[in-house]
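Forum: Protein Structure Q&A
Topic: Joint prediction for protein chains with partners

I've read a bunch of threads here and the consensus seems to be that you should model interacting components together rather than docking separate models afterwards. I'd like to see that in practice. Below is the full input, 257 residues plus whatever partners are listed. Could one of the regulars post the assembled result?
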Amino acid sequence: MATLSRIKVNESSGVSVIRFQDEKIIDPESIQQLGFELFDLVEKDQRSKLVLNFSNVDFLSSAALGKLITFEKKAKKAGAELILTNISPEIFQVFAITNLDKLFQIKDSEADALAVL
Amino acid sequence: MSSSDSIKTVSRSLPSCLDAYQNLIEQILNDLTELGWQKNDLFGVRMALEESISNAVRHGNKEDPTKQVHVECQLSPSRFWARICDEGEGYESAAVPDCCSPENLESPGGRGLALIRAYMSSVEHVDKGNCLTMEKKVSQ
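Posted by a regular:
Agreed with the consensus. Here's the joint model:
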């Protein structure tokens, strides 16, 4: 796996748990790099169970949402399961405003996600 | 807005690149914090500024280095107002597809306007569509 700069990945019982390095996901170059790193997890590393933990994140732009949508599509195409967790109320509101809470599988906590994966 | 409500004005012209405006947004949020604005409302202001300025850079000015984005804000303890103008051709905001409809849900773009409208008390496109004014009243 290439060196990761925008995410950290840990394994837990066959599930890849991903955390973000940035509290505010807004910088265009960082978002592009984030995309590369996420996409490689399913396309190169062929990970099949993924948890995306948002506990570090206190802001994200619509460009970041776009990368997450593309990641979700690539995961689905690869047959991988993806669950988002630990989303703060403010960030969840962004998902709800844009109806993306209907696109992504979202759980309150990492433990809840690991219980179903 | 009457001059007696206006505590601070901010006016800046920015180059059309996507990494040129973060310091301005931080300055505006710091000013609002000093005026007593709370976390919830500050989140909405940050989102509206981020999306409106990046739209002006990307879509209005097409990241043309010869064009600028003009930002004007009025800040008070109870009200945030901003006018964001690009130097592009303008557009019809009503023609922007609904990002949140089922057929567009998986589209990677097009959510900026919806987010601006959700967080601001009012949003208006003026001139030929290359200027946007928005206002937010602080939550009670």
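Residues 59 and 90 of chain B are 9 Å apart (CA to CA).
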